[in-house]
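ok so i was messing around last nite and threw this chain in just to see what happens. nothing serious, just curious
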Amino acid sequence: MKYLPLIALLIFTACAPVQENLSQIDESETARPAFMVERSVEVSGKPERIWERMHTRYAPATIYVGGEKKLGLDLAARDKSENVAWLPTANAKILDQIRALYDLKHIHLVVTNNMTPALFELIATYEHIMSVRFVAVDLSGFQDGAGLLAKLPQVHFVGAMDDTAAPADYHLFRQAMGPSKCVKYSVMPDASHTKGWEALWPKLLKIKPACSVETPTLPLKTEIIPIQTLKPYEK
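result:
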């Protein structure tokens, strides 16, 4: 019996490469049909696998970050933009590497599911991020910094069936942000935290982040009504 912990450790160690290979195969099956290629970048001294499709230098790129159950990569594969990449995580060094490699002009960020303090700080401070789309992202713990994003063009896509990043959490974040003319918000009736987004994504990409020329006002209670709601497959 005293050898059981050692046996368990050996089994876990042997399974880890198998799980990694399966993950890579799974990602490949999503990315390669969209003509995305695998690349390795360094994150905190360790190599990290990303997928990208870059066709045009000196142009903007749409960078997808994160996503549970491959959601971020699934959405990136449906993006027909000239320059697209998916990263499991992001920091300034990674974005600098990608920008330098392809001479990218600036970045439109798409954040899926997960938000960390480091990623939030990156969005608020990295000067080459021109816009951000949040897909099923729980921002309820970031109200104190919400005002830092007030001048950044952004769209918040919220799933009506999402118990992790619920519409109410978005409204708390928006109220904390204060005056802004750069925020759009859309609730997807049949989407949850990880499901229901892929088929809708090409349509949702047509909602462009932009700042209005209207004078910004404080968010009102009436703002709980979605600014822009799309039904599945609505033209």
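not much to say yet. The chain has six helices and eight strands.
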